[in-house]
Every structure is written in structure tokens, then in C-alpha cells.
Specification:
The complex is a heterodimer of chains A (266) and B (278). Helix content of chain A is 39%, strand content 22%. Chain A has 266 residues and is of the alpha/beta class. Chain A has two domains: 232 residues, P-loop containing nucleotide triphosphate hydrolases (Rossmann fold, 3-Layer(aba) Sandwich); 31 residues, no CATH class. Classes of the chains: A alpha/beta (266), B alpha/beta (278). At the A-B interface, α5, α6, α10 and α11 of A face α6, α7, α10 and α11 of B. The complex binds adenosine-5'-triphosphate (ATP) (2 copies) and magnesium ion (2 copies). Chain A: Keywords: ATP-binding, Cell membrane, Membrane, Nucleotide-binding, Translocase, Transport.
Chain lengths: 266, 278
């Protein structure tokens, strides 16, 4: 399992309206969710992890190597990202070219890249859109296309910034299956999301950001079991807990299934 | 029936220019104004297309062939779009694409429509401060709109839609990037605006069931179901691939039913079904 370490990481945008400050943090789980309020600094940390923004101080290392010491093509094989707004990363004339372009950054064999592009577009359900202009796709299709571009390169670490945004339920299931497969095959998946039900059901590890700092790192059960902490960082528990609480039960539940398991005497 | 107080769509068909088949097929609706209508459906089912028609963006800005009729409180955007447009607040699915591009700060972006409507400076500054506080943007008022985070941008899009206090709100997936507390507060706020018709597309089924008077389900360009949340979610067809709300799932697993043998879909109904069983 690849490891990402942050040491005394500091960053501020030019207007200094926002400061990120992480003393020490280790990402080492196969599937981690990053949660936190709007403006907490979640997307900013992803931009620092991929070198899109440069920290003012401190250090990011991947498996002990300083991020900036990787050659660009090496770095792309280590760590890949899909952005929150797909329009920030799509610029080629066709869907297929978009995927092939990502691949060309790490591999110069055009035939191999073309074959790989077909494969990943099929995987995300965009095979029949290969020749369309990404600009003509719907928002959900553009989100899926960004996932295809990073799957094609197959880095060791995947960063997904709100991957489920605007997807419908069948697509959400498909993406969840892709994440499970990645995490089961030795990759590290780190996902930013606002969907607490999904975090509770699918993730082993959750990291909470607030005001540019990491305020919690642990299991969903520990996070959602700590109401005082949730309140402090401005988060809500999964819906099932809110409902149980209304019925006078303040135990920790991660899904309706979990509620049934704990409340039906066999 | 009193046309002045109803939303009426009759045999509405919409086909975008250059397309061979219709994207909206034979939509029929006759429902009162002043309610919250939740619109649900999978990708490509026509939700955004329906929003564009409801807002008059189709055919005024995006060209398409329309047949059938659409009136809300007796008025149609096809008759006088300018007048219609001033009574609507619209949030598009992609909030970044909705910025005017003309404002240097969030505060200016918020004031934009009010200035165009000739509102006095006093009223403008009060409304900007209020709506910014409501949407959690007070600390961002001096920031460049383009530099906002995704969720802040979405909050701004909602704020600009509601600042003119329109009678009709048309919102296409307005909370997809919002944090849980912001999302909850926004849905709660919807229930407090009186005499406003709200059309809201959302995949947040739990929230819709708490606030919506009526749910419309779209599938492949057709309106396949409409009714109260309880009615609609107790009669889903597997074909639509739409999940049930968490309340329903919990009640189903515990076998907590309401009279009439239906499952609850909102928190208060859940309490009722729970009390009846326990
Ligand atoms: N401007 C356009 N020109 C031509 N066809 C379009 C246009 N916009 C949408 N369509 C097509 O109309 C159909 C309905 O699309 P629409 O965007 O209304 O779906 P939706 O339910 O909003 O989907 P999503 O959940 O992905 O937002 C789709 O087949 C889509 O490809
Ligand atoms: N280019 C910029 N210039 C100035 N401030 C910025 C810039 N980009 C982001 N910010 C601010 O930095 C803060 C953190 O932004 P970031 O995008 O990391 O938040 P986030 O946690 O991803 O939020 P969201 O959940 O809304 O996506 C926000 O307050 C934002 O307004
Ligand atoms: Mg973000
Ligand atoms: Mg849409």
C-alpha cells in the first residue's frame, strides 16, 4: 500500500483569505474519505498533493520520496486526480482523444493507448460516446470521463474530488464497484465527498477537515459516534442515525441494514 | 378550474434542434401553484430539459421544437419572456457557468439583478447582507466569484436566484456540492418561503420527502409518476432504477407500516408507524 505523508504543510492563497496548515498526517488506508464543510480546504489539499499548487512551507512525501523530486511521468504513475469541476481538466476534441492524451503523458505507444482508451471508456459506460466532443456531454458524463482518464493511466494512488456529484443511482453503483476493485488490488483511493451515508457504508477510514486543518482521522464509526465532534466540525451523522435518534435511540448506526442487525433479535 | 392558480402543461413535447426524437414526450400536468415540486429521475431522463421549459430558456435561449402548452398562473414564457423572466429565479446544474462574469466580488455578483431592476441602494445592501448570511457567504463577500470553492459557488448561485424574491424558483440539482449542514438548512428554508412555486431537481430523495408537496418522476423523457412523496415512493417501478428514501428502507426492514399498509417516507410518518408498532 502506497503511503502519503504530510509534514508541517502550509499554504495560503494570494489574498490570504484562507490558510491551510497540516502539522503531520499519514494517508495509508486503501479507501479514505475526506469530509468537511464547504471551504474547509479539501480541494486545496488535493491540488497540493498533485503539485498543481505549491506549498509555502513543509513537505509532501509519497513512499518516502519528496513529491517535487518525481519526474512528471513518474509522478503521474504514482498519483492521479479527477477534479471537482470536470471542465477544469477536459480540453480535447473528442472523448477518446481525452483519454489518449492522458495516456500519452506516461506512454508513447499510440496503438497501446488507443486500445486502453477503448477499454476504460467501456468500463465507465461511455463507449458509445467515444467520438463526441466532451463539451457536448452532460455533467454526469463529463464526471465519468474524468474517471476514465485517470483509470487509463492506473496510478498507485487515486484522488477523486466529489466523484458522485450529479451521477444517477446506476452510475453511483458502478463507481462504487470501481473503487472497491481499486482498493482490493493494492491501490490507494482517497475521495472527497459530502455524502455521509456513503462514507458510513463504504469507507474504512475518514479524515475531517475544518478551516484548513485536519481535525479527525479514524473510522466512520468513531467519527459518527462522537456527536460533540460532529457539531464542532459542522457535520451531520448518516441519515439512519438521525432517524434512530428521533425514535429515542442514540446508538451509532452505519446503514439501515446495520440498524436492522442491531435491533432485530434473531 | 381557476387557471390563475395552477400550473398547466398539456401534451407538451420538446425536441432539440437537430435531434430526431423528442426529449420530452407528452407531458401532462395540472397542479396548484405555491407548492414545492421535487423532480427525480436518472441521467438523460429529461429533468434539465423540463427545467429549461419551465424557465422559458427553451425556446427563448436554446432552440427546440415545442408542441403543446405550458402556463403557470395563466402566464406563459412563450408570450412575454422578459416579464416572465423577472418573476423567476433559476439555478442551473453547473453553477460555475452561471456567473455573470462581470462582477469583481461576490457582493457585486449578488447585487447584479437588483441593480438591473432599479432597486434602491439601501435595499440592495440590506438584501445582500441578509442573503449572504443565509447562504453562509458573509466571509466571502469581498472575494472574487471565480475563486470560490465548488460548494461556495453553488451557494452563490442559489443566493443570486433568491435575492430578487421571485414567485417561481426553478432549481436544477442546487445542492450537489453543498455540505450536509448547508444542504439541510437550504431544504428547510424552502418550506418557509410562502406563496412561492418551487421546482427542484434533486437526487437528495431523503430531503425531498421531508419538504416536497409533490414528486414528479421522469424516465426517458416521460413523466411516469406524480403524487405525494408517500404515494410515489410506495409505488416505484424497478425499471426507473430509483431508490427508496432512508425512512422507507428503515421501516421496511423493521416492518413498521402506516394504515393503508404503506411505508412511511418522511420522519414524522416514521414516528407514527413506529408508535403504531411499538
Ligand atoms: N442542448 C441539447 N441539445 C440536444 N440534446 C440535448 C441537449 N441537452 C440535452 N439533450 C438530450 O436530451 C436528453 C435529456 O437530457 P437532460 O439534460 O434533460 O437530462 P437530465 O435528466 O437532466 O440528466 P442528468 O441527470 O444527467 O442531468 C438527453 O438525451 C440529452 O442528451
Ligand atoms: N484561487 C483562490 N483565491 C483565493 N481564495 C481561494 C482560491 N481558491 C479557493 N479559495 C478559498 O479557499 C478556501 C478553500 O477552498 P477549497 O476549494 O479547498 O474548499 P473545499 O473544502 O474543497 O470546499 P467545497 O466543499 O465547497 O468544494 C475557500 O474558502 C475558498 O474560497
Ligand atoms: Mg472542493
Ligand atoms: Mg440535468
Amino acid at each position: 500500500m502506497p503511503q502519503i505523508e504530510l509534514h508541517n504543510l502550509q499554504f495560503a492563497y494570494p489574498e490570504k483569505s484562507f490558510n491551510l496548515n497540516v502539522e503531520q498526517h499519514l494517508f495509508s488506508d486503501s479507501m479514505t474519505a475526506i469530509v468537511g464543510q464547504n471551504g474547509a480546504g479539501k480541494s486545496t489539499i488535493f491540488k497540493l498533493l498533485t503539485g498543481l499548487l505549491k506549498q509555502d512551507a513543509g513537505r509532501i512525501t509519497i513512499d518516502g520520496v519528496v513529491l517535487n523530486d518525481f519526474k512528471p511521468s513518474e509522478r503521474l504513475k504514482k498519483i492521479g486526480i479527477t477534479f471537482q469541476n470536470p471542465d477544469d481538466q477536459l480540453f480535447n476534441a473528442t472523448v477518446k482523444r481525452e483519454v489518449e492524451w492522458s495516456l500519452s503523458q506516461v506512454n508513447s505507444d499510440k496503438d497501446q493507448n488507443a486500445a486502453r482508451a477503448v477499454e476504460v471508456l467501456k468500463k465507465v459506460g461511455l463507449a458509445d460516446k467515444s467520438d463526441e466532443n466532451p463539451y457536448d456531454l452532460s455533467l454526469s458524463e463529463r464526471k465519468l470521463l474524468t474517471i476514465a482518464t485517470v483509470l487509463a493511466v492506473d496510478p498507485e494512488i487515486y484522488l477523486f474530488d466529489e466523484p458522485m456529484m450529479s451521477l444517477d443511482w446506476p452510475s453511483k453503483r458502478m463507481v462504487t464497484d470501481i473503487f472497491r476493485e481499486l482498493s482490493a488490488t493494492g491501490h490507494q483511493v482517497i475521495t472527497i465527498t459530502h455524502d455521509m451515508d456513503w462514507v458510513a457504508e463504504e469507507f474504512h477510514s475518514v479524515t475531517v477537515m475544518e478551516h484548513g486543518e485536519i481535525k479527525f482521522s479514524g473510522t466512520p464509526r468513531d467519527l459518527f459516534g462522537d456527536r460533540e465532534l460532529l457539531q464542532r466540525v459542522g457535520l451531520l451523522p448518516p441519515k439512519i442515525m438521525e432517524l434512530a435518534e428521533m425514535l429515542g435511540d442514540s446508538k451509532t448506526y452505519l446503514s439501515p441494514q446495520d440498524y436492522q442487525n442491531q435491533n432485530i433479535v434473531q | 378550474m381557476d387557471e390563475d392558480k395552477r400550473i398547466v402543461l398539456e401534451n407538451l413535447n420538446v425536441r432539440y434542434s437537430g435531434m430526431e426524437t423528442s426529449q420530452l414526450k407528452n407531458i401532462n400536468i395540472n397542479t396548484p401553484i405555491g407548492q414545492i415540486i421535487g423532480i427525480v429521475g436518472n441521467s438523460h431522463s429529461g429533468k434539465s430539459t423540463l427545467c429549461r421549459v419551465l424557465a422559458g430558456i427553451i425556446p427563448k435561449i436554446i432552440s427546440a421544437t415545442i408542441s403543446g402548452t405550458y402556463t403557470i398562473a395563466g402566464r406563459s414564457p412563450m408570450d412575454d419572456w422578459t416579464a416572465f423572466n423577472t418573476s423567476t429565479g433559476v439555478v442551473l446544474q453547473n453553477p460555475a457557468g452561471q456567473l455573470s462574469g462581470l462582477a469583481d466580488t461576490v457582493a457585486d455578483e449578488l447585487a447584479f439583478d437588483l441593480i438591473n431592476q432599479g432597486t434602491s441602494a439601501d435595499v440592495i445592501s440590506k438584501r445582500v447582507a441578509n442573503v449572504a448570511a443565509q447562504m453562509g457567504l458573509t466571509d466571502q463577500l469581498r472575494q472574487k466569484p471565480e475563486s470560490l470553492s465548488g460548494g461556495q459557488m453553488q451557494r452563490l448561485a442559489i443566493a443570486t436566484a433568491i435575492i430578487t424574491q421571485p414567485q417561481i424558483l426553478i432549481m436544477d440539482d442546487p445542492t450537489s456540492e453543498m455540505d450536509p449542514v448547508g444542504r439541510q438548512q437550504f431544504f428547510h428554508w424552502l418550506t418557509t418561503v410562502k406563496d412561492t412555486t418551487v421546482f427542484i431537481v434533486s437526487s437528495e430523495i431523503d430531503d425531498l420527502c421531508e419538504v416536497a408537496d409533490s414528486i414528479w418522476i421522469m424516465s426517458e423523457g416521460e413523466l411516469v409518476s406524480q403524487g405525494s412523496p408517500q404515494d410515489v415512493f410506495n409505488h416505484l417501478s424497478p425499471e426507473w432504477q430509483i431508490p427508496t428514501p432512508t425512512v422507507y428502507q428503515m421501516a421496511e426492514k423493521m416492518n413498521w407500516r402506516l394504515t393503508g399498509d404503506v411505508f412511511p417516507v418522511a420522519a414524522e410518518e416514521l414516528k407514527e408507524a413506529f408508535d403504531a408498532t411499538n
